[in-house]
Amino acid sequence: MKKFNLVILVLAIIFLSNITFAQKAEQPETTYDLGSKINEMTLTVGGILVVATNDGLVGIDPKVKTPVFTFNNFGKLSPEETDFVPESPYIIVSQGVGSKFAGIAKTKRAVINYITGKVIFNSDNDNWNQIYTCNVVLPQNKLIVSGIQKVGDKFEKMTPKVAVYDLSTQKMDYSFFLDKPGRVGVAKDFSVTGVPLLLKNMVIIPTAQGLLAKSHKGDDLWECKIKGVNWMVADKSEKEIYGFETTTNGKNTRIHKIGSNGAELWKDDRKVQGNVSNFQILPQGLAVVSDKSSGGSSSVFAASDESEIAFLSASSGEDLWDKAPKTKGYVQHFYVQDDGILFGIQQGGINKISFDGKTLFKKPLKTGENIMVMAESPQGLIYITSEDANIVNLETGDQVWKKPLKYKNSAAVASTFDSVNNRYLIAADGTIYSIDANSGDVAELANVKFDEKEVADFMQMRNGNIFLSSSQNLMMLDGQGKEVYHEYFKSPSQSGFVKVLSGVMAVASTGLAMAHAAKAGMNRTNPYGSSNDLSNYNDYGKENKRAADMFASIGDAAFDVMSKRFKATAATENAQFILTKLDDGTGLVKVNKDSGKVDKEIVLKDKKPEYQVDEVAGVLYYKANDKTIYAYNLK
């Protein structure tokens, strides 16, 4: 009888435990069985999860129970064959481009709109045998391809051509040949050497034979003998065009100026050392930042690892400054202001130069390395590095604070502005500093100790309290620095899981993903998406609004979806997600920032979980097995 009662007791405990677990464990809202081995997951700026499988690409929208697209036309694609076009809903996929037989064997390209799920362009469908270049042009929303198209007579099928497609209508606008089909004479190389420039009245194609300008119907306009141009930019009037040509050894750049009629406007091109990383057309002249590299060489003849800043005459290309400012490192921040150019160096240092080459600061400002923040405040320019912080007068460079706030070189520095108490708060190396915005007086508000030797890498004011966080720790202090709560969630062993990102929250937050890779300098010259002004400190949302307005202006349904997403408040703004050890295995916890309490636990049951978190939509994507993805609702 006793044994029977014991058995009943054990079964009851197991039953109650299962009920408790069932109440606590979150179930996936949607299961996506992809039917092929999953190799990689990418959360896009448009909120679609793009999954690379052994068969191709699959797009997942959490609002839809089945994939929004499946692209298996080219089979398995490597990361190098999948290009997510920055600030757009487009993916360019390639096949055969990197092969040693490229140019002989067939090369393929396709463009997918991952939001609508439509394949906008497929080289196979339009009989392209070779695709040499494939460029999305924004905000015009066009696609420009070059290559060999197997259409027409035998000569036309062998002659390089260019076609311009409208990405909204998915139809070709016009096409033209780069050489005359069947031309008799010496063979010429008309390969496209860089990114075409699409203007209101023409398109300019850089080729190995020079620049070719065509009308929007494909008619010849002019030719220019400047060869090998990699990228171009025009001024607002589109009457003056600048072309950038990387030298043969790849170490320097030649800048050319061309008129809208194809005439060379400079007597000689302007050669700058290094590769151009920033180019600004200003009323006073041309600001050029170029980055030099030693290539790892220790030779005394090797170039220094540093940026050069030049200011050129727009009319002649001549240097307007008698002496270029010394940088002794790479330009990390670059801002054009009414009275000159303000720049910060990654290795430390801030300076400001007038447009006529005079130093506006009384002397170059010495700072610590890695300038994480350079922003405008009511008191002046605030800067925060990994070693120090201060506010300086934007006109003279004089200190506003009595002396810089210095701290040990910290792996992370967090800061915020407490508007109620009119003070700056900076967390570095375990100490919270309070700096009076008016007087600049510094006080140590609190000392905090995070477990696992972490330091705070995020800070914000919440209802008069100070919220701090790192990968595994959350803490709330009241306005006087007294601890309200401190919650710690033990991390799985470093070898026991795959962190999507190291740092804040260890998740892939989409937030504002504007810093995509782009051709050197183009991110600072194209009016679409360019941002070169000095932001205000704590001006959160400014970049999101700029992006949202930019997307909305394009007038396409997919861009409209992206615009709404960037305007939206994150569904999880009041929570933080942490990967940790749970009783039932590794999992993700949703922690309320205000209380420190766990709102949700999602057991991933995997020693090496692979996942992505979309904080805007409030969705967790988890790779449940080789072929399956679970989507959890985090709201």
Textual characterization of the structure:
With 635 residues, the protein is mainly beta. 7% of the residues lie in helices and 40% in strands. It is built from three helices and 45 strands. The strands form twelve sheets. It has a four-stranded antiparallel β-sheet with strand order 1-45-44-43, with no helix packed on it. The protein has a four-stranded antiparallel β-sheet with strand order 2-3-4-5, with no helix packed on it. The chain has a four-stranded antiparallel β-sheet with strand order 6-7-8-9, with no helix packed on it. Helix 2 runs antiparallel to helix 3. The two termini are 50 Å apart. About 10% of the residues have low confidence.
Supply database-style keywords.
635 residues, 3 helices, single chain, 45 strands, mainly beta
Helix proportion: under 10%
* Strand count: 45
**Which percent range describes the beta-strand content?**
35-45%
Structural class computed from helices and strand pairing = mainly beta
Q: What best-fitting shape do the alpha-carbon axes yield?
A: flat
Q: Radius of gyration in whole Å, from Cα? A: 28 Å
Task: Give start-end ranges of low-pLDDT stretches.
Answer: 6-23, 99-104, 495-531
Return the average pLDDT rounded to an integer: 85
Instruction: Summarize the main sheet.
Output: 4 strands, antiparallel
Seen as an oligomer or otherwise, the chain set is single chain
Widest β-sheet, arrangement of strands? 1-45-44-43
The termini sit apart by: 50 Å
Number of helices: 3
